Amino acid sequence: MEAVLQTRCLLSLPPNPTRVRVRSLLSPSQGLKQRLFASKPLGLSGLSLSYKEVPSFVAKPNGLSPKGKNFICKAEAAAATDDQPLFGETQKPKFLGIELVTLKKIIPLGLMFFCILFNYTILRDTKDVLVVTAKGSSAEIIPFLKTWVNLPMAIGFMLLYTKLANVLSKKALFYTVIVPFIAFFGAFGFMLYPLNNYIHPEALADKLLAVLGPRFLGPLAILRIWSFCLFYVMAELWGSVVISVLFWGFANQITTVDEAKRFYPMFGLGANIALIFSGRTVKYFSNLRKNLGPGVDGWAISLKGMMSIVVLMGLAICFLYWWVNKFVPLPTRSMKKKEKPKMGTMESLKFLVSSKYIRDLATLVVAYGISINLVEVTWKSKLKAQFPSPNEYSSFMGDFSTATGIATFTMMLLSQFIFDKYGWGAAARITPTVLLLTGVGFFSLILFGDPLGPTLAKFGMTPLLAAVYVGAMQNIFSKSAKYSLFDPCKEMAYIPLDEDTKVKGKAAIDVVCNPLGKSGGALIQQFMILTFGSLASSTPYLGGILLVIVLAWLAAAKSLDTQFTALRKEEELEKEMERAAVKIPVVSETGNVTLAGGSLLNQAAGDSTGSTSETSTPSNI
């Protein structure tokens, strides 16, 4: 119960105290009824004990008190406010209403998150430039990279991480994981890339391409530019390992639940600020080529500058981690371990099939992964055609990252209004609707761009440039809608489920649907490339597949909205019934405080006929 009783009791009472003396000791100005039915609920955050010495009523003292003296124990459960320390504790210093010990955790965590996301944006933009614009490669390499290189490397890393976690301390594990990333990115900028002409087997790749044909350009490009592909995989792992595993694991370790509820949403806004600044950084270094003389590899200079920043940010992350562990006390945790649901792939599939609610939720997750992948890879192939130079490509990606950060920041501010005004169903349908409309426009410009050429020329654009801009808008709005609406909708959908379905459903979707969504689009593209010879030849079919998947996504969102609303109403009804069944404390005519069941809470004095019974207004408990 949020409301607790403030009571004043006598540790030692004389045998027959007068009514006047008892009433005076019970402080009528703040009597029992006033305390029971106070409008402001009282919490358990504070407990103050004070002792008051009063003259004895009888010559022979009670055995509980010293001779000749009686003590009144005044025990008050004070209101649960942040300003009131616990019994025996001193007031903690605050700044702007926040405890300094909390600020010592949140500020370094915010700076760590900024540095990690700053690096991730630079690495994400750079990895695409390297593998897409490299000689003998194209955007067709990306589906093969994600399936046959990135996925095995991710699985291998997690197996290694699990073994290291069993033998290393948390601090040693953090440094053991992040330092190789920092060392690799520094070595790539200053050693591997300058030597790429010597370490890449281009002659062997050319011979194999002549034998196998152009359909195998993508798979053979992995061999041809293996160091660039290694950079691509390490950049992908930075996002999943350093952000998801290291940072959030550390944040959850040192923060309390109340701190997390208050400050974690701010990290999301800070992430988009990092996206904006890192996009400007990529833009700046990509334009360095304009100020260099002829014969100078501008992309190599730009790469050294960006990798230097990545290394410095990485060292800053390590310093902040060391500082927090050195100077910030960790919160105490319960030693009780909770059992985690462990479901294999087949068990997850069976659970997915058995529940319509979980099937619809799984459809949302898989559909997003496939849809965004189908459009993104096709867009990057057009992006290379428009910006063949690495510096031009990277400069455009810098603008793209900045625009994504601004759009996501704005959408996060609007998301609360959308949820409050239009509800879960409308919010869940915004992401597929945006993706469908922009996807139709993008594929239409690719398939029917020539007839639109004269009209686009009036605006100073070619069909290819228009497709690039529309594809960029599609990615920007889809990602911002995903971060601000799709992800919250997905997590909210678990809330009204019973605990067993909630736990097993989330485990099933994590095991099956997330990997299926990420690799499903890549597998479809690989099949299309090997069947029709190139990504461009398969574009009409990819557009048709996108339409079918998004329509299935919208249908699943509508079905899930109906079920979600019904479960919410059922949950609200159960809460109302529980509130109606709460037993309300009543003060009897004798002054005894009893519950409806008859349990005695307090008995102040033997005769208290002066008190009158009152009924109370139920409050939320």
TrEMBL record:
<keyword id="KW-0934">Plastid</keyword>
<keyword id="KW-0547">Nucleotide-binding</keyword>
<keyword id="KW-1133">Transmembrane helix</keyword>
<feature type="transmembrane region" description="Helical">
    <location>
        <begin position="143"/>
        <end position="161"/>
    </location>
</feature>
<feature type="transmembrane region" description="Helical">
    <location>
        <begin position="395"/>
        <end position="414"/>
    </location>
</feature>
<keyword id="KW-0150">Chloroplast</keyword>
<feature type="transmembrane region" description="Helical">
    <location>
        <begin position="106"/>
        <end position="123"/>
    </location>
</feature>
<dbReference type="GO" id="GO:0005524">
    <property type="term" value="F:ATP binding"/>
</dbReference>
<feature type="transmembrane region" description="Helical">
    <location>
        <begin position="527"/>
        <end position="555"/>
    </location>
</feature>
<feature type="transmembrane region" description="Helical">
    <location>
        <begin position="225"/>
        <end position="251"/>
    </location>
</feature>
<protein>
    <recommendedName>
        <fullName>ADP,ATP carrier protein</fullName>
    </recommendedName>
</protein>
<dbReference type="GO" id="GO:0031969">
    <property type="term" value="C:chloroplast membrane"/>
</dbReference>
<feature type="transmembrane region" description="Helical">
    <location>
        <begin position="357"/>
        <end position="375"/>
    </location>
</feature>
<comment type="similarity">
    <text>Belongs to the ADP/ATP translocase tlc family.</text>
</comment>
<dbReference type="InterPro" id="IPR004667">
    <property type="entry name" value="ADP_ATP_car_bac_type"/>
</dbReference>
<feature type="transmembrane region" description="Helical">
    <location>
        <begin position="426"/>
        <end position="449"/>
    </location>
</feature>
<keyword id="KW-0812">Transmembrane</keyword>
<keyword id="KW-0813">Transport</keyword>
<keyword id="KW-0067">ATP-binding</keyword>
<keyword id="KW-0472">Membrane</keyword>
<dbReference type="GO" id="GO:0005471">
    <property type="term" value="F:ATP:ADP antiporter activity"/>
</dbReference>
<feature type="transmembrane region" description="Helical">
    <location>
        <begin position="173"/>
        <end position="193"/>
    </location>
</feature>
<feature type="transmembrane region" description="Helical">
    <location>
        <begin position="263"/>
        <end position="285"/>
    </location>
</feature>
<dbReference type="InterPro" id="IPR036259">
    <property type="entry name" value="MFS_trans_sf"/>
</dbReference>
<feature type="compositionally biased region" description="Low complexity">
    <location>
        <begin position="608"/>
        <end position="621"/>
    </location>
</feature>
<feature type="transmembrane region" description="Helical">
    <location>
        <begin position="305"/>
        <end position="324"/>
    </location>
</feature>
<feature type="region of interest" description="Disordered">
    <location>
        <begin position="602"/>
        <end position="621"/>
    </location>
</feature>
<dbReference type="Pfam" id="PF03219">
    <property type="entry name" value="TLC"/>
</dbReference>
